[in-house]
Fold this protein.
Amino acid sequence: MKKHLAATLTALAAVVSLSACESPIYGAFTDDNPPAGSTAPTQEPQQNQQKPANGAQGISQDGDQEQKVLKVQQVPGLTPIVTSATGRTVYRFDNDSANPSKSTCLAECLKLWEPVLAGSGVVVEGGGIDERLLSTIDRPEGQQVTLKGWPLYYFKSDLELGELAGQGLRGLWFAVNPEGGKAKSTKPTETTTPVRKDVQTLTVNVVDGFMPFVTNEAGRTIYRFDNDSNNPARTSCTGECTKKWEPVLAGKKGIKVLSSKINKASVGTIDRPEGKQVTLNGWPLYYFHKDKKLGQTAGYGVGNLWFAIAPDGKKAARCL
């Protein structure tokens, strides 16, 4: 009898969870209550932290309890970066803190990212790093090396010099330079010139797994960027950013709103080099380069900064 009752309660819970996506009140999610599908890293109590990806506690793939050797190296396409003695790229994580030094890469994060551990100490080979910028912080696996306060990591897929599979991952992970900053690309900046249509269209669509969000007439998902500002309306996506995020530009003959769910008075434009960028409730609008038709939402949650935009200008919520 008890087993039958437990199974019934479990089934009821599943029905309640599924019905959440069917709720017509799609304004229940706010910027202060992010969607359930948000990609923000889960921070769990330290006692729940997992071992590094290589399965060794306090011992990295790059060495054992001997001194940690760091060096500065040049790889194609980037300004000088910090590596291990064997050439493994060293990274920093934007969700961490440098002042005070704090790591937020715990639990699931450690399946991909391995803390750089100090072993019996840290030394610099060949110069190029001011040793006064080096320190350590405590974590369950051992003493994690920091550079100018930033905790350091290896990416599990990088094993030798020149491998940079973690560079730019989720817009949060970057090879670290000798001063503790982000290594920069040395490739010429190429910007994507958006196509100027006769008329830019805005409408509202519903896709499985999401509350209603704004698209163009062809169904292409439209996004907003948390690093922008809506009061005043201002874009911060320029240069390298526009390779992946295409500003939604007003057409030669203006903007046409095709859905009554969008308040026409909330639609405006701002100036940028490519033309007049469309805004919704002050938020500049973008397309993601991988989305081409209705149902494609590859840009949702990228870097925990990019989200499909709801008809009222808020982040469109993702449902379970």
Q: What stands out?
A: Confidence is low (pLDDT under 50) at residues 1-20, 22-64.
